[in-house]
Amino acid sequence: MARVLLLFFVCFGSSLCDGFIKKHHRRQAAPSLVPVEEYWFVQKLDHFSGADTRVWKQRYFVNDSYVQKGGPVFLMIGGEGPANPAWMTSGAWLTYAEKLGALCLMLEHRFYGKSHPTKDMSTDNLRYLSSQQALADIAHFQTIMMESLGLAERKWVALGGSYPGSLAAWYRIKYPHLVHMAVASSAPVKALVDFSGYLEVVQLALARNHSDCPKTIKVASEEVINLLSHKNYKKLTADFKLCELLEIHSSMDESFFIDTLAEYIMNVVQYNMDNREFEGVKDTSITIQVVCDIMSNNSLGDSYDRYATVMRTITEMNGERCIDASYKKYTQDFKNATWTPVSTGDSGCIRHVRNFGFFQSSDSTAQPFSGIPLSYHVQQCSDIFGPEFNLSMITDSVQKTMSFMEDLKYKAATSFPNGLIDPWHLLGINSDLSEDLIAVQMEVTF
Ligand SMILES: *[C@@H]1O[C@H](CO)[C@@H](O)[C@H](O)[C@H]1NC(C)=O
Ligand SMILES: *[C@@H]1O[C@H](CO)[C@@H](O)[C@H](O)[C@H]1NC(C)=O
Ligand SMILES: *[C@@H]1O[C@H](CO)[C@@H](O)[C@H](O)[C@H]1NC(C)=O
Ligand SMILES: *[C@@H]1O[C@H](CO)[C@@H](O)[C@H](O)[C@H]1NC(C)=O
Ligand SMILES: *[C@@H]1O[C@H](CO)[C@@H](O)[C@H](O)[C@H]1NC(C)=O
Predict the structure, then answer these.
(1) For a surface tag, which of 156, 204, 231, 355 has the fewest beta carbons within 10 Å of its beta carbon?
(2) 2-189+409-442 classified as CATH 3.40.50.1820
């Protein structure tokens, strides 16, 4: 999750595995143009086993240009993707740092980027990937930094956007003696198995300037299903510029193809008019306006033709040669446990975030897509991680996450900024909980 352009808005390159956006159209954070020094912190592998003394090296970044005596420490929390060093020289938080004389630190989340706690991402090792361990990492990091840099008297502020926003809020709750305040931007602090509301917000966002836009998309996506049922694979392959001839052997292959297209639209809404050029994102010019202008342009053929034009336009603007809609390839990629030098950690991310559910199903009637039901999302988990990842297992795990979160009582001095066309805001805090637990809602005009 990521989005709007307003002050307060901090966000990392990816958001909840980009809402499980397929790898090929993930918005990868490009390396910073300015070389920023990397630092390494010796971190514990398992914070919850006293007997386990294994350690690993966690990456972090520092900007000390604005530090003043007595100023606060800003601790930017990393999330489910590489921590992008571009944040050390850009972003609203540096403006605040300049004003307040703050030291800025950014800590990468375990299992992402270059922060590899284990020798690979095997299932066995992935049990060390959890939000609880991540919070304990932050606490240990802060404690050692306070001692070694003499920062114990400073006021520490935790910041994060998206999942790290939730971590910032939880950090304030779990370690109130360490952190003075949290800024939990676009933080989905609630867990939910069937997040069908996601596509409802997508529909509302699409309809803002073109009331017919969702309806035209619905008609188009139903025509796609119709062509699938007539096995018109060659036409679909050509119209949507697929990388390979569409191969359909199961309903999962079909749903994956439909989902792949739908996710391009979801991505446009979620990242509408974001300001992440500084992070190296190329395609910020693709907006809801661009999509809906095409969908409502009568001279571009019928709804289906316009939908295909939208997809070709988006991929072109993304700099993608074609659309990869192979479910087989997709699931295979996730089974690879080998680290890449700067790991997006997709496989781990999906497992990790599955503790929250967050399945963006098409099971609501107030949304523009068909053919991506909850059962498809659950089957995807079983196909990637094994049959034990079924609905009851996931429901149990989400239940556990929810009871962990329900036990949490939000601590004072937390702000929860959310953009209202960001679908994830539904799982956030949208009204003030008290005088200093404040919801900041942001309208977007476009
Ligand atoms: C901190 O950020 C400012 C603003 O971009 C930049 O000018 C400065 O070089 C950065 N300092 C360090 C140590 O990275
Ligand atoms: C889109 O809608 C918003 C509010 O609904 C309006 O302020 C804006 O002018 C519209 N933009 C265009 C390009 O129509
Ligand atoms: C509709 O599409 C045609 C062909 O690309 C283009 O020339 C025209 O400007 C578009 N109309 C609008 C209102 O965007
Ligand atoms: C797994 O990923 C690594 C690193 O990207 C790559 O070198 C290797 O070829 C992949 N293995 C398979 C079986 O795809
Ligand atoms: C899900 O998997 C568990 C463990 O493998 C099994 O006990 C349970 O019956 C399965 N539930 C469903 C609904 O398939």
Answers:
(1) 231
(2) yes
pLDDT in tens, 87-128: 999 999 999 999 999 999 999 999 999 999 999 988 889 889
Q: Rounded to the nearest whole angstrom, what is the distance from the C-alpha of residue 38 to the centroid of ligand 1? A: 14
Of ligand 5's listed atoms, the one at least distance from the Cα of 391 is 13
Ligand 2: residues with CB < 6 A are: 208-209, 445-446
* Residues forming beta bridges with residue 61, ordered by sequence position: 106
Kindly give, in sequence order, each residue whose CB lies less than 8 Å from that of residue 230, ignoring residues fewer than 6 positions away: none
Q: How many whole angstroms from 35 Cα to the centroid of ligand 1?
A: 11
Query: Which residues are near ligand 4 (CB < 6 Å)?
Result: 336, 338, 340
* Ligand 4 centroid distance, CA of 112 (Å): 17
CB 75 within 8 A of CB 158: yes
Residue 14 has pLDDT above 70, yes or no: no
Task: Give per-residue pLDDT as tens, 402-413.
Answer: 887 777 788 889
Q: What pLDDT is stored for residue 26 in this prediction? A: 43
pLDDT digits (tens, 9 = 90+) for 121-168: 888 898 899 889 999 999 999 999 999 999 999 999 999 999 999 999
Question: What distance in angstroms lies between residue 10's CA and the mean position of ligand 2's atoms?
Answer: 25
Give the number of whichever ligand sits closest to the CA of residue 339: 4
The answer to whether the pTM exceeds 0.70 is yes
Ligand 1 cavity residues, CB under 6 Å? 36, 63-65, 88-90, 94
Query: CB–CB of 79/110 below 8 Å?
Result: no
User: Which amino acid residue places its CA nearest to atom 8 of ligand 4?
Assistant: 338
The tokens for 18 are 């980009």
- Give me ligand 1 centre to Cα 323, in Å: 39
Domain boundaries, the chain: 2-189+409-442, 193-398
What is the CB-side half-sphere exposure of residue 416 using CA atoms within 13 A? 30
Q: Radius of gyration of the chain from Cα atoms?
A: 22
Q: Number of helices and strands (H, E) in the chain?
A: 14, 10
Query: Which range has the worst mean pLDDT, 26-30, 294-298, 372-376?
Result: 26-30
C-alpha distances (whole Å) from 183 to each of 73, 126, 169, 317, 325 are 13, 28, 7, 33, 38
The pLDDT of residue 5 is: 25
What integer pLDDT is reported at residue 275 of this predicted model?
76
- Residue pair 343/129 in contact (Cβ under 8 Å)? The answer is no
Phi/psi at 251 (5° precision): -65, -25
For atom 13 of ligand 2, the residue with the nearest CA is 446
- The finding on whether 299 has its CB within 6 A of some atom of ligand 3 is yes
**CA-nearest residue, atom 14 of ligand 1:** 63
